[in-house]
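Minutes, project check-in

Agenda point 3 was the complex the collaborators sent over. CS summarized: two entities, 922 residues total, and the question is how they sit relative to each other. Sequences were read into the notes so everyone works from the same version.
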Amino acid sequence: MRVCMLMTTFTPTSAAETLSVIQWALANEAPLEIIGHGSKRALGRPIQTEHTLDLSKLSGVMLYEPEELVLSARAGTPLAEIETLLAEHGQQLAFEPMDYAPLLGTQEGRGTIGGVLAANLSGPRRLKAGAARDHILGISAVSGRGEAFKSGGRVVKNVTGYDLSKAMAGSWGTLAAVTDVTFKVLPAAETETTLAVRGLLDEDAATAMSLALGSSAEVSSAAHVPYPAVTRIADGALGSDAATLLRVEGFGPSVDYRLRTLTDLLKNAGTIDTLAADLSRTVWRDISDCVPFADGSERPVWRVSMAPNEAHRMVMALRMQAACDAFYDWQGGLVWLRMEADPEAEVLRHLVKKSGGGHATLVRASHALRAALPVFEPQPPALAALAARLKQQFDPKGILNPGRMVPAAGSASLPPVHTEEATS
Amino acid sequence: MTGLVMPTPDTETMRRRAEIVADMRIIVPGEGVVDTVNEMRAFESDGLTAYRQLPLVVVLPETVLQVAKILKYCDERAIRVVPRGSGTSLSGGALPLEDAVLLVMSRFNRILEIDYPNRTVTAQPGVTNLGITHAVEQEGFYYAPDPSSQIACSIGGNVAENSGGVHCLKYGLTANNVLGIEMVLMNGEVVRLGGKHLDSEGYDLLGLMTGSEGLLGVVTEVTVRILKKPETARALLIGFPTSEQGGQCVADIIGAGIIPGGMEMMDRPAIHAAEDFVNAGYPLECEALLIVELDGPGVEVDHLIDKVEAIALANGSTTCRISQSEDERLAFWAGRKAAFPAVGRISPDYYCMDGTIPRKELPRVLAGMRALSEKYGLRVANVFHAGDGNLHPLILYDANIPGELDKAEDFGADILRLCVKVGGVLTGEHGVGVEKRDLMPEMFTEIDLDQQMRVKCAFDPQHLLNPGKVFPQLRRCAELGRMHISGGKLPFPDIPRF
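CS then shared the predicted structure for the full assembly.
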């Protein structure tokens, strides 16, 4: 194990200082771990670097024009601060970024807007509204070459040059340290109601959700939460029968009308409950944040992205081989899986591949497992090589979050275990 | 810009033309290789007709394997390739090069799969934008992005250009509606990005590809999401005495939490040209005409129509008509949709620009345009995707008058500079292509552009795919890869460290 002679955490307060830190790191070929609040540090491949670039002091909303639907902020601005500001103006980040804290057992309500982009967060409304990558308009960043660059702008419609802002989405800080972000914001719905069909088997739930999403009821979120996961939603408010949940948002009269449309459409599917706005919001927040599996354990939890209507068959096949609990968001396009014991990575990934493709991310597991297994879905060789070339073009010396997504180029072995001293 | 400088043709490639044509015939047997001057004329230009160039040879492959073989062949011999869909680009994105193979994807014209439970369509790239909607409309679905060329433009071209349309404020651009693609890299490798799932894994290469203008790879398959058609749509036609009032009305509608399906504005010259052409019943005395379309369940549309009408009145609208029938709604749109040809009637030629601005800057930009119009002695009419700030100024000129095209182009460049100056961008939906290539430094520093070109280096290190587009100056990847390292000392001693 390496002995760390000098542990440094840089906490720049401006983009210019961030640039200097990265130029220093480049000159010394000293890899940096880039963090905001560190709220997602337990997610992804664990890395160990001697130095940390902490962007949490790079904070503050720089521009917010509600009528222009645009907000710019320093990357380290707390997400909570931005959501509060937007709510004061009846607006929101429509992609509904989730909070991993309940699942990872960290403090809730943390996380920065830069982290939202780096992890390409979204929530149940992703089905209709997209993810962070669909709402990012522009960025300023410092590449691993020690150069400050910008991309995009502050307007929605913009095809001027390559969309490097999107390239930052889901890049986990491995391409550049983003210093400023500009997001499109949208009006929050006047109200919401959720329709719950009770007691459906996974297969019937898939049919019901497909029917609802294929109607003109403009369902913005669709989830199926079987037993036992359902008992943990909204402190047990939904009871223990499987719940197939369809969220309808918008202006009052429209919500009422569309609920009637849905009720009529699904009247033969099962017993129907409606959840009024407050309960609806709580339910979707819990689904968003994977509260059913927030059990304080380290049992492996997977986040599987796949063709929505194939999910239930994949889960059924998985259950033949491994004990697990599952629930479905995005009509099935997002499957949350908690494994009883072994993560069964190969079995799961094989089944996803056979079910129309997609990818599985090991979002919760012990440190040892995350170091030993590919946390992110391994890519086919040509694609992996392309991704590696892209990384090389942004960060040729591998100083930005090396090994966070895939093992760092040239690293012969897995990174050493992350010790307490290394993060203190 | 008429002095457009394109990459110097490679003499070795030109000399070996006959051999290259013969080899292309081996890869693509049958009718797929076009090499006579007469037949190649059909491909010498795209929607930006001011520029023409015959390619080295035109190749129309039919299979992914053929595309892969062509690209690999060209990569190994350093032969340039220009990809082309339907050739409707308004920025010269598919302008051929004298020494380049023109790779035309129009024979990739089949819908491969319609999946209603997952609400996706998988199509070959040469299928038209409207062709996708046609394939699913009997089940009440449609594909949302609707560029005005949708009857002709291809879905592969839409991916290359990240095409928009009048509905993209509410329903997003191509980038928000494409779930997956298959593409061939310049080295002949075939890769798939995304699929029917919503989040792609790894880096967002799909996001990078969308809007990359054919410089990163050749798309061979596209999976898009489809939406259920709204139950109803109704429109308001609202006239204002000033563009400021029209602009404020747009801001107030959005401020009230309403995102209309479409929101278009026209200025006085555009209103008059359109009305003279199609007799849509547009009010002629107003300075700004707003079309606001609301779609969704009838009860929602009625509810919002009332709100929008009240907002319009509060902003001093002088006329406000609400469509009472589908025919009337279409009549409101008829003038707007015919705005380009209508302007074509009142002027021998027109030049269509495409900047985006923060909406609140509209009055300032319109005033600036009036001043420029006087300076250049050319008229300008404006249509405006008001919801998202995308301006389409149409500059009226006569190409038969010597120097007038140059003047129109200079005028256009000044408008785009003004857009950037007020916080906007050079192009909202038409792309950079060759048209706005040399204006890129107005918006980006050399470092910004170099980093974009480095992305190109990851995909196509020899700069063989569509060179001469987007970037004002091509730099070799080896040169771009050099690093200037400074800052070896610990920075900012005053930065808190722990």
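Noted in discussion: Chain A touches chain B through 105 residues (CB under 8 Å).
Follow-up: revisit at the next meeting once the mutant set is ready.
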